C-alpha cells in the first residue's frame, strides 16, 4: 500500500468519525450529513481501489485522472452550495413569518391586558 | 359605504419625525363614516420610536428582528387582515407623505373601486420631485412595469399606497421583502387587481436617510429588475 493511500484512508476515517460525533451530539441534522457521508465513502472507495480511478478516467476520456477528481468535486460542492442557499432562503421566510406572528401576538396580548385593567 | 382605514407606517429610527407626523395624521378628517387607526410597525429601531409612537396614541407593533421595509409593511397588512380593516394605507414615517394627501387616495378608491391606489409625485409635477438620477431610475421602472403588466404607473417606487380588502388579502400572503414597491405592482397586476395612480404632493424627508444610496442604487436596479421578472413568470 502506498503512503499516500494510508494517509487518505486515515483522514477519511477521522472525518467519518467526526461527522458521526456531530450527528450523535445533535449538532448536525441527518439530512445534511448524508452528503458528507457519501463524499467520504467515495473518497474511501478510491483510496483503496486505485485502479478504479484509472478506469473512470479512461471511460470519460479525461487525460489526467486528477482533473477528473477536481471537476467532480467542484461540481458536487457547487450543487451543495446551491442547496445551502435554498435552505437559507427557506429559513429566512420561516423566520420572517415567525417574527410577524410574534409581533402581532404581542400587540394583541397587550390590548387584552389593558382591557382587563 | 363606511369603512375602517388602517394607516401602516413602517419605521426605522423615526423618533424625530413622528411627533409632527402622528398628531397631523390623527387629526385628518376622513369622509363621513370612515374611521382611522394609525399603526406604527417598528422594525427594530435603535432609538425611541416605539415609546414616542405610543405617547402619540398610535398602535405600535414591535418586530422582534429587523425584517426590512417589505416585511414591516406586510406585518401591517397582516394586522389589517386580522382586524378586519376595509383598507390599509402605507405611509412613510419620515414625513415625505403629508397626511392630508391620503384623502386623495381614499377618494380615488371610492370613486373608481381600484384595488391598489398609488400616490404619485409625477402626475402633476408638484412638490418634491427627487433627484435627477432617481427620476431616471423611476422612469426605467415605469417602462419595465409597462412591459410586464401593460399598466401605466409613473411612480412605481412610491411607498404611498392604498390597499383595499382584495389587495390586503393578497399582500398578506405574498409581498416582496427587499425594495418591494415596483415588484409588488407586478404581483398585483398578475393577480388581476386594478392598480391606479393619483397625483399627490410629497415633501422632502424630514429626518433619516434613504435606504437606497451610492452603489446601492445599482444593486437596487438590478435586484428589482430581476425580482420583477421572476414575479412576472411565476404562476399566481
Structure explained in plain terms:
The complex is a heterodimer of chains A (117) and B (236). Chain A has helices spanning 3-24, 30-48, 50-60, 65-116. Chain A starts with a helix and ends with a helix. Chain A is elongated. Chain A has 117 residues and is mainly α. In chain A, helix 1 packs antiparallel against helix 2. The relative contact order of chain A is 0.06. The longest helix of chain A has 52 residues, at 65-116. The model of chain A has no long low-confidence stretch (mean pLDDT 88). Chain A is built from four helices and no strands. By secondary structure, chain B is an alpha/beta fold. Chain B contains eight helices and seven strands; from the N terminus they run βαβαβαβαβαβααβα. Chain B has a seven-stranded mixed beta sheet with strand order 3-2-1-4-6-5-7, sandwiched between helices. In chain B, helix 2 (49-55) links the parallel strand 2 (35-42) and strand 3 (59-62). In chain B, helix 3 (68-82) crosses helix 6 (165-173), helix 5 packs parallel to helix 8 and helix 7 runs parallel beside helix 8 (216-233). Chain B is globular. Chain B starts with a strand and ends with a helix. Classes of the chains: A mainly alpha (117), B alpha/beta (236). Chain A binds chain B through residues 92, 95-96, 99-100, 102-104, 106-107, and chain B through 41, 59-65, 67, 71, 74-75, 78-79, 82, 177.
Unreliably modeled segments of chain B: none
* DSSP strand count of chain B: 7
What percentage of residues of chain B falls in helices of 4 or more residues? Answer: 40-55%
Question: Averaging pLDDT over every residue of chain A, what do you get?
Answer: 88
Roughly how many Å apart are the termini of chain A?
81 Å
Largest Cβ-defined interface:
A-B, 10 and 16 residues
* Rg of chain A, Å, rounded: 24 Å
H/E series of chain B, N to C?
EHEHEHEHEHEHHEH
How many strands in all of chain A? 0
Reading side by side through the largest sheet of chain B, how are the strands ordered?
A: 3-2-1-4-6-5-7
H/E series of chain A, N to C? HHHH
Largest sheet entry of chain A: none
Q: What's the mean pLDDT score of chain B?
A: 87
Amino acid at each position: 500500500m502506498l503512503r499516500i493511500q494510508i494517509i487518505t484512508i486515515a483522514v477519511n476515517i477521522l472525518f467519518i468519525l467526526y461527522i458521526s460525533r456531530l450527528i450523535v451530539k445533535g449538532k448536525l441534522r441527518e439530512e445534511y450529513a448524508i452528503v458528507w457521508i457519501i463524499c467520504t465513502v467515495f473518497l474511501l472507495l478510491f483510496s483503496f481501489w486505485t485502479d478504479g480511478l484509472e478506469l473512470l478516467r479512461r471511460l470519460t476520456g479525461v487525460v489526467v485522472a486528477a482533473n477528473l477528481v477536481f471537476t467532480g468535486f467542484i461540481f458536487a460542492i457547487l450543487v451543495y452550495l446551491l442547496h445551502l442557499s435554498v435552505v437559507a432562503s427557506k429559513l429566512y421566510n420561516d423566520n420572517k413569518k415567525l417574527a410577524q406572528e410574534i409581533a402581532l401576538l404581542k400587540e394583541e396580548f397587550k390590548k387584552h391586558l389593558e382591557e382587563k385593567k | 359605504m363606511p369603512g375602517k382605514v388602517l394607516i401602516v407606517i413602517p419605521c426605522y429610527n423615526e423618533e424625530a419625525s413622528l411627533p409632527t407626523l402622528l398628531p397631523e395624521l390623527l387629526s385628518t378628517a376622513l369622509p363621513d363614516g370612515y374611521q382611522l387607526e394609525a399603526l406604527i410597525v417598528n422594525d427594530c429601531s435603535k432609538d425611541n420610536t416605539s415609546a414616542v409612537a405610543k405617547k402619540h396614541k398610535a398602535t405600535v407593533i414591535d418586530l422582534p428582528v429587523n425584517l426590512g421595509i417589505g416585511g414591516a409593511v406586510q406585518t401591517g397588512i397582516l394586522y389589517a387582515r386580522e382586524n378586519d380593516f376595509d383598507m390599509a394605507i402605507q405611509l412613510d414615517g419620515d414625513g415625505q407623505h403629508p397626511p392630508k394627501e391620503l384623502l386623495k387616495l381614499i377618494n380615488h378608491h371610492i370613486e373608481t373601486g381600484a384595488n391598489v391606489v398609488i400616490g404619485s409625485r409625477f402626475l402633476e409635477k408638484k412638490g418634491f420631485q427627487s433627484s435627477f438620477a432617481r427620476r431616471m431610475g423611476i422612469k426605467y421602472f415605469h417602462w419595465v412595469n409597462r412591459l410586464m403588466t401593460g399598466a401605466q404607473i409613473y411612480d412605481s417606487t412610491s411607498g404611498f399606497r392604498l390597499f383595499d380588502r382584495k389587495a390586503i388579502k393578497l399582500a398578506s400572503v405574498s409581498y416582496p421583502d427587499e425594495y418591494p414597491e415596483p415588484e409588488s405592482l407586478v404581483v398585483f397586476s398578475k393577480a388581476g387587481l386594478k392598480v391606479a395612480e393619483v397625483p399627490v404632493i410629497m415633501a422632502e424627508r424630514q429626518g433619516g436617510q434613504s435606504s437606497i444610496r451610492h452603489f446601492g442604487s445599482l444593486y437596487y436596479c438590478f435586484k428589482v429588475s430581476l425580482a420583477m421578472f421572476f414575479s412576472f413568470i411565476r404562476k399566481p
